[in-house]
Structures
1.
Amino acid sequence: LCHVSIFLLPRMREVDLGCGKALLIKENGEFHAVGHKCPHYGAPLVKGVVSKGRVRCPWHGACFSISTGDIEDFPGLDSLPRFQVKIEKEKVYIRASKQALQTQRRTKMMAKCISLSNYNLSSTNVLIIGAGAAGLVCAETLRQEGFSDRIVMCTMDRHLPYDRPKLSKSMDSHPEQIALRPKEFFCTYDIEVLTEMQVAAVDVKNKIAVFKDGFKMEYNKLLIATGNMPKTLSCKGKEMENVFNIRTPEDANRVVKLATSKNVVIVGASFLGMEVAAYLTERAHSVSLVELEHVPFKKFFGERVGRAIMKMFENNRVKFYMQTEVSELREQEGKLKEVVLKSGKVLRADVCVVGVGAVPATGFLKQSGINIDSKGFIVVNKMMQTNIPGVFAAGDAVTFPLALRNNKKVNVPHWQMAHMHGRIAALNMLAHGTEISTVPYLWTAMFGKSIRYAGHGEGFDDVVIQGDLDELKFVAFYTKSDEVVAVASINYDPIVSKVAEVLAAGRTIRKRDVDAVVFLSFRTGDMSWLTGKGS
């Protein structure tokens, strides 16, 4: 492929092998070659970050070992293919299969259930309640670790696990288009999925899950990964036709169909509400957004960033009605016609989408003895264990100790974090004693602009911004007591992934060092400052 001397700078290159490309990396004097695209959404890893034996995706933060290609942090399910590298007479050679170069992904080896036919239908070794990212990653991790006993997942949904973030980002996607794994995968690896099955109670003393239809299933180990349920409006007319919470692919598809060339009102400038607004703008006649705060995302991104995002929406014909809420939904012939605001304003509306937050779906656990906090979240330790032996919990419905914030108990309802929760839970079902230490990472996409975010900025007291907010090309550092606790960016890749690597390494970034961080990581590409100790 090349002479070793071309690797003085940079440390990784995308190389063409004729029938496909590979990512060639040099770290600590050794060469490695893996797939060049992130298996999650196909991001070019050459634009990501290499640090301490792994490469981090520039888009959504997934991490892969450069020596094995194995996925080490999420989102996504598959690993990278690894290719053989050899050096002869200072020339670099790669040996790779055509199939691996073309697929650019590798599913880890997994065990199967060795005696599935011998099981009682009402008994399983591992029961997973919920079939989102946490549940699926838990099941896959168990199989990857050689677990060959029965695994049953159950879900209220009609579908096998799917890419839930796309419900608001790509609303006309059909279930089969956003499936995380095909039906054959679950058959091949003996992961049973019971759809449209709701657990009504859990008897932890006798290790029995009781379903809504009366069916009972015994378990040995239990994972609760039920996620959350959307909040509904409390005003008159909330039950009428054409008022939606986006919970399923069918919900999203129906909203798109009904909104085309019609008037849409979205209640709540949440991530879901804003993503739905952005998606429907080109399809609807009008899009109005009602929000109690005076700036979208103020608590999450801060007022200045929130105003810049709001301006982008206004430039794309979204009309905001801020510092007010809905007092009534009016109908005509049984269908929504108007949304009445407490400010007195009356909005024409053919469709209303409600995005005013969510609550943990844990009501069925109230009498179980499992520790639930005052907000309804399941309390777990760093190994995703509840207070009941053999019962684990993961995903949006839990609070857990976040290492990044001195083990403060937090709820992080991010897609990436749900994946990691599922993996940690599975490893500890197998008594590995693995603690969670990942850095939260999320993203959103609106009007072709991607916002990346890493860390946990809850309670930040200042925001340091580099770049141009008006041009939507900036990076924002969120600080608390002089320490950077989170970072967000638009059009500043891969700064968020680089800062995520710093935080993952246990380093501290002070407010006074932000200028240096941006210069060293973004302008020079130098990551050597990662290896320093302390701050």
Note: The first helix runs from residue 98 to 103.
2.
Amino acid sequence: VPPAPRFSAANMSVVEHVREMASAGLHSNVRLLSGLLLTMSGNNPELFSPSQKYQLLVYHADSLFHDKEYRNAVSKYTMALQQKKALSKTSKVRPSTGNAASTPQSQCLPSEIEVKYKMAECYTMLKQDKDAIAILDGIPSRQRTPKINMMLANLYKKAGQERSSVTSYKEVLRQCPLALDAILGLLSLSVKGAEVASMTINVIQSIPNLDWLSVWIKAYAFVHTGDNTRAINTICSLEKKSLLRDNVDLLGSLADLYFRAGDNKNSILKFEQAQMLDPYLIKGMDVYGYLLAREGRLEDVENLGCRLFNISDQHAEPWVVSGCHSFYSKRYSRALYLGAKAIQLNSNSVQALLLKGAALRNMGRVQEAIIHFREAIRLAPCRLDCYEGLIECYLASNSIREAMVMANNVYKTLGANAQTLTLLATVCLEDPVTQEKAKTLLDKALTQRPDYIKAVVKKAELLSREQKYEDGIALLRNALANQSDCVLHRILGDFLVAVNEYQEAMDQYSIALSLDPNDQKSLEGMQKMEKEESPTDATQEEDVDDMEGSGEEGDLEGSDSEAAQWADQEQWFGMQ
């Protein structure tokens, strides 16, 4: 007589073994065994009971999901649900021929609701949002768990079904009143901060050290209404509290708000603080990389991109940062590819849409660029840079009327601040009839914020047209008193040349190039001055050029040809 088995595992059915391995996370083992058992079941339908077949299909589908084979997983989940329907028609579970002990139908069966949730996850990974909504909509409201309501809310929001999205977010908060992302979802859909706060008031009052939550909700209500100043002040008051000091999420939000308000210096500072606290931080690093690139710090951008790729290449941010490096290095086709890759990873990445839109615009594909900027506006209606990109496209295609309508709408929607005033003035400068209006708008902007660089640049452009160089010099010196900016130093150099202050102009060009070594206009201004300083040498050079058939122009043509060859080689990067 053989000895009695020492382990209870010997008395388990083979399906129970599969279930144990699945709960232990042995996905590759589950996939192999369940695949073999399903083949056996197909060859002998009586081998396993309906409930066992259902379990095997679910566990096999789960293992496929873990291996990211989403389409195959959906197929198996669908078969499992069909098997479940057949099972529900049978009141009793038939015992399987190969197993002495059978599990009662009511016990240990995977939840049908969970199966549908997993199917919805597969559909979202396959970018089939309509199918995901359909499968979750089929679950009765009372049976929906918080995670199902959260997924539905996000899917509804993405599909533009705002009312349904609000209902689902509220249901999440009813079940889990501290679901902060659901709170942000409601605020982003224009639900009043007071109404959202009322849904959390009971838990705030019953749990100690949660008094900050009502202020947090108030802060993000300001964020989503576009009131950047009050949002910054409220988050700063939170951040100063000892218990929330050095919170990376709050610092990231502050950095983003400073960026939206046009305060790039403070934005970079806050991003750097957040990065020091969390060296693996990814969120917001796309905006940080863009700001560094705009300042001409391309080496820092390249290093940031490499670091982010080492953290994760499955997020949009590292691709956007590398794209910014390419864009500001004037490699637009590569920037286009990198932007497209980022959108592929995250279709809601506003910075990726702006990058791709800017690359398309600079490549002369203005209509395609307009589509991307419009999508960015849909996703971030309070971000001015989205509107700026669209208006630049309109101006590039001489659609001044459309640009004026858009600028006026932004002015009315986001309010009269230095940024919206400057944006409207930028469009007015394009039409000779509205020059005086542009001047008035710029004066208002500079009264509000004398250091706002874009307003200073546009006012300088206006003064240059009127040949009021002394006024321009005074304006630029005043703007540079408390900040240093490459463009402002370069324009000051241009104005100084106009009033024959050559030495100081040379100094300004040098400062501009020290801030951004890639600034071509500063380099051209400096080279032009160097030629004018030695007219005899310049005349001799011109004579030689004439004798040699304009050799200098030939060099320029050669460099264009070389650039064209590089562009041809990079065409494969271009993604539609």
Note: The chain has 32 helices and no strands.
3.
Amino acid sequence: MAAVSLRLGDLVWGKLGRYPPWPGKIVNPPKDLKKPRGKKCFFVKFFGTEDHAWIKVEQLKPYHPHKEEMIKINKGKRFQQAVDAVEEFLRKTKGKDQASSHNSSEEKNRRNSSEERGKQSAGEEKRKASLSEGKVKKGTGEGKKRVSSVSSERGSKSPLKRAQDQSPRKRGRPPKDEKDLTIPESSTVKRVMTGTVAGFKWPPSVSEPVKDSDPHFHHFLLSQTEKPAVCYQAITKKLKVCEEETGSTSIQAADSTAVNGSITPTDKKIGFLGLGLMGSGIVSNLLKMGHTVTVWNRTAEKCDLFIQEGARLGRTPAEVVSTCDITFACVSDPKAAKDLVLGPSGVLQGIRPGKCYVDMSTVDADTVTELAQVIVSRGGRFLEAPVSGNQQLSNDGMLVILAAGDRGLYEDCSSCFQAMGKTSFFLGEVGNAAKMMLIVNMVQGSFMATIAEGLTLAQVTGQSQQTLLDILNQGQLASIFLDQKCQNILQGNFKPDFYLKYIQKDLRLAIALGDSVNHPTPMAAAANEVYKRAKALDQSDNDMSAVYRAYIH
């Protein structure tokens, strides 16, 4: 079967990692998003999702020829919504093209009519000029002298030429107001579907913002500087770069659901230490995406499942680090993070020049800075990369990764971050990611305590808790987090998705961060006291939503 040529604007089916082929459109990539080396691929935005990725050519199929085939094999509700989004896009495009075609026809008719009127006007002026010349020839000498005088006053142009110059329109040209009329361009989809496709050509300048009227996609760009100041912006329709006075440059924030389908796993050997709620999901996704992974856990039995999935077993942290190129770690708190590196048979004993260590634990900036110093002192490379999310997001490969430290190591971890997360941010020097992660979890923990407080207040005042949830879900606070945590409370199901003891730890560290810079954190302090009470009620190993029980006891 002959290969099908693809080009910018094509509607396609693209493979989305663990997901079935998904409908999307080939578009210009965001500013500074580099094309992967060594393989021909296109940048695709997928309908009905927030996903966008570089996809290999062999993983793409034209939309229309394969539409019926894909619809037959995929029956999911989300998939159908994506197909509906494509059809809606095509309907809007067709309407715009018809309007453009109609406007073009009307413009052509106006131009033809203008030309005809111009011809008629010129003919009439020519006839009048001929009559005038005849009268002059028959006139007296005095008449000739008068005509000569008039001619010299008007200049040397002939009457016909003067008539043409005085005409408001020149022959064969549209009037000034028509000339300035802008005819809408046909959409890229129509151009691709009807035009001859000679092959894909990248736009002459990728520095220009991507222009797209498609409302079905959202993109994330990160603005990062060498200084700690960082900002990002969620962008729809047009991709922009959020810049600061310090002079920022944008880097890609990988959207893993889509990128998973097109990434080539790194050929580096990967190690992973810590198979808790978050670590287990991360390792599973690394293996699914084809990475070579060696695992270690303090409780060795937790490794068995991953050995069955193809992972290798490391006997100690030092052994894992010494046999792997990049070793990740995800443990519970600052003490565990230090013990893992500095303890017997720890990470530090396996570090040699060039070995890489990535700490994904949520700890304070002082702890991560100390760990970075001892790793680098042995010739190793260090990156902090705490993750925002929960067990479910970890299992789904939809974590948000906040990284800081060795920028080259961050880039070396690209395929790993794409496998485990939906977005990754590089935040500059070591310590920045720890600080940002604590602030994020401070907000989340405080919000959870407020939710629990509102539900208990509703109950004691005779209001329906379910109705309160329904109202919140229809308002500006609506979110997956709000709905899930309220459902946990209403159903009395506190199976851990994010341990209560860990959110309390993060609140404590965030308050200490505020104290270190003399910044008040009264809301976080109040929430922390509620979580401490919940821990006293033996809720430490339940989900953070069990903070509700601190209000009812």
Note: Residues 281 and 394 are 5 Å apart (CA to CA).
4.
Amino acid sequence: FGLEKPGRSGGFPNMACVGDFNVLSSSIPATKVELSVSCRNLLDRDTFSKSDPICVLYTQAIGNKEWREFGRTEVIDNTLNPDFVRKFIMDYFFEERENLRFDFYDVDSKSPNLSKHDFLGQMFCTLGEIVGSQGSRLQKSIVGIPGKKCGTVIVTAEELGCCRDSVLMQFCANKLDKKDFFGKSDPFLVFHRSNEDGSFTICHKTEVVKNTLNPVWQAFKISVRALCNGDYDRTIKVEVYDWDRDGSHDFIGEFTTSYRELSRGQSQFNVYEVINPKKKGKKKKYVNSGTVTLLSFLIETEVSFLDYIKGGTQINFTVAIDFTASNGNPSQPTSLHYMNPYQLNAYGMALKAVGEIIQDYDSDKMFPALGFGARLPPDGRVSHEFALNGNPQNPYCHGIDGVMEAYYRSLKSVQLYGPTNFAPVINHVARYAASVKDGSQYFVLLIVTDGVISDMAQTKESIVNASRLPMSIIIVGVGPAEFDAMEELDGDVVRISSRGKFAERDIVQFVPFRDYIDRSGNHVLSMARLAKDVLAEIPEQFLSYMRVRGIKPSPAPPPYTPPIHVLQTQI
């Protein structure tokens, strides 16, 4: 057929090619990169000791340029030269400009609120800038405090090899050098993987075992990706330190190994001499600074979201739409429910963006579509869970187009009213989810709302109860309202609770639609991003339910092989 690849090269960039390539439902090829952050010569904000730094990464929304927190590293005590262990894993799109901001703070208390800590400066760059630097290693000055030298930051990007194995390892050591004047050493291990350019990136620290020269560390689990990026022969450097309270840990020695060597398990090959190069250079009779022995090595293959999908788990998608009066009269262009004959309104766009992706995981493509906050014909009673298709016994619509049709039909027949109650539709889906907890089905509820919620306490209770069920909730906020209440339900910063009971898992993902409105009118890409953001947390939420319940994926059915027709050949 000679199908042309839908590309950006020449001609008309957004023309449909043969086969009508659909930007929304095809998966945009993304590669994942892992960002490692180190700093040198940070500002010292503590009087009696060194700063206790943390790095907070922000990404910038394309629409309104608002900075959103992406994640935080761990806090490292007493150092101005931190090498953070916790990485940021990001999707890298060659064709998108991803603006990044790294903020550094000196942490003074347990509070997650950054304004309670001392600001140490920041660095701005793009993801492309990091990836495009030599060796994908960007070094830049930290700025943001006038008249002060704030030090430098080094950000390294590494493309992740998609290796799903994890390793459970345990080490012990013998006859380590004594470093403490009074008592014995307090040893811990630091693991580094080597990079393409010969530098090293920290990937694990063990706990400290106090006052011994023969420590046995606890077994720890690390992904093969973090340990060696899936390259079994890549050097792994292990350093042994003696812990000191003031952060000036004493170097005992080091050794190198590789995943391939470690995978031989406990054997004579996995007893390593700990060498301190300085001592070795100085002392003729130096043998070593002790030995480290691998006690056990177990490979565990992490199951992925797609393993469950392959094994037949169905994702059931339910839609709930806000029909309250605060949306405005649907016949007026200012209304969020305005029925414009030429383009979708915000509700329609959000439904389509999310629905078109989710429907690929639902074999029968039948979606229950509900509305809330309207007065229904014939008697004008207010309902907080009514079927958009007018059939309460069978609220299912066929495909996302069926949902859209039912939505438009409802707008013509119901009267927008109020109040805005979420709990009834959440409980509606929870009833179904409670009846299939064996991992064969998972439920996703999409609520599209203008965001002014009336039943906050009941909604929180419903979410806390639903967090024990195989379900996730996506909330898309449309319109100009303040969405503080929605952010609270999202539970990313503070886990949601009701009457002293906390949600078992984080199951709510909230996004404001306005962050995704593309000024240039290219709705396709902005909606692809909306869908990507709201669906991003679903696989992890799904896996967290399966893990907690100990549910393994069913084996994938064998691939279909057509029967072989034996051709009788004439001799």
Note: Residues 399-413 form the longest helix (15 residues).
